[in-house]
Design the sequence.
């Protein structure tokens, strides 16, 4: 059997599909599994042992997008897939699923696009406190043979995962050595940006957390990271922390890492701290303790999906009448779901992570 899986766009969402990949391979050990992904998240599934092939869909624009999509559709059709599963539900992924020519096409019930599938699955509302991994598991239901026992229906037996990358680990080791960070130090990786302002904890809160943690243990070192388009955020937090720490500010550094390097960096760390964004879910594929900060999104839906033995603690502002929200506009205007997270709670959670 040849199965096509399509999941475009965000890193965290692609990470959340990896338990499903393991389940598919377990249930269909001889199947040919192909995954279509966009460049930003390609490293998440590149080298995944459960996949036969990974196809990277170019992220072009205008006429270039049309040309690339037509070429990709032709390639998919020539593969003669038996089943195509749209794990995304967006306009591009649904069209590629249809264009694959697979006789069986599975996707979510979405207005204007359901006709592209032969099997339509109800989609859980975005604000429902039901985890994204569980939501994607629903897409296996039309394949009755895939879910004919309780174990196959339970995604908790499969955690999110990414393969190790020895070259990325070597690059990270060199960069840490250049920064004076050795095995004698306890490294804290802190991701300070997010895809939109609705998921960003204030810079002064991150800086305050770093200062307090650094003063408690001089052996701690801090690597501040951000997204490629938000390097200024890491620089701002680092500058504020260094200014407050004085000579001890040398313990605080910042840098940019690609997806594979970020995972290797997190594996080297004692603790990871960050908001609900792709890097948090990359960190969750390691055994490193994580402290996750949630604003408008709910931990019940987006908490790292990992082995229960590995420390993970969610911090949020608690119940609010406007939370969760669709992240289009902050109605109160003060981002209270993030500004309401006290520094002290994050510090305490991090100390528990160190103890773990």
Sequence:
């Amino acid at each position: 059997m040849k199965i096509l899986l399509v999941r475009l766009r965000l890193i965290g969402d692609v990470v959340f599909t990896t338990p499903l990949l393991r389940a598919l391979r377990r249930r269909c050990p001889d199947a040919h599994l192909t995954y279509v992904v966009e460049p930003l998240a390609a490293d998440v599934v590149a080298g995944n042992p459960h996949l036969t092939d990974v196809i990277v869909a170019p992220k072009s624009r205008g006429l270039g997008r049309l040309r690339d999509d037509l070429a990709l559709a032709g390639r998919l059709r020539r593969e003669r897939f038996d089943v195509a599963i749209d794990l995304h539900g967006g306009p591009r992924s649904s069209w590629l699923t249809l264009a694959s020519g697979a006789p069986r096409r599975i996707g979510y019930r979405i207005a204007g696009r359901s006709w592209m599938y032969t099997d339509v699955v109800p989609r859980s509302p975005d604000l429902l406190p039901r985890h994204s991994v569980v939501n994607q598991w629903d897409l296996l239901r039309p394949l009755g043979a895939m879910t004919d026992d309780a174990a196959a229906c339970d995604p908790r037996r499969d955690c999110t995962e990414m393969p190790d990358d020895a070259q990325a680990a070597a690059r990270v080791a060199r960069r840490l050595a250049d920064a004076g960070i050795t095995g004698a130090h306890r490294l804290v990786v802190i991701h300070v940006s997010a895809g939109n302002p609705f998921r960003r904890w204030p810079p002064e809160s991150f800086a305050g957390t770093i200062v307090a943690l650094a003063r408690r243990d001089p052996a701690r070192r801090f690597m501040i990271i951000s997204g490629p388009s938000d390097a200024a955020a890491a620089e701002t937090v680092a500058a504020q922390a260094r200014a407050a720490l004085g000579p001890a500010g040398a313990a605080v550094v910042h840098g940019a890492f690609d997806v594979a390097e970020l995972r290797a960096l997190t594996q080297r760390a004692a603790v990871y701290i960050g908001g609900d964004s792709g890097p948090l879910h990359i960190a969750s594929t390691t055994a490193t303790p994580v402290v996750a900060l949630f604003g408008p999104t709910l931990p019940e839906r987006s908490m790292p999906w990992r082995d229960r033995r590995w420390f993970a603690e969610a911090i949020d502002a608690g119940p609010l009448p406007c939370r969760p929200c669709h992240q289009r506009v902050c109605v109160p205007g003060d981002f209270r779901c993030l500004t309401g997270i006290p520094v002290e709670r994050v510090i305490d959670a991090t100390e528990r992570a160190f103890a773990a």
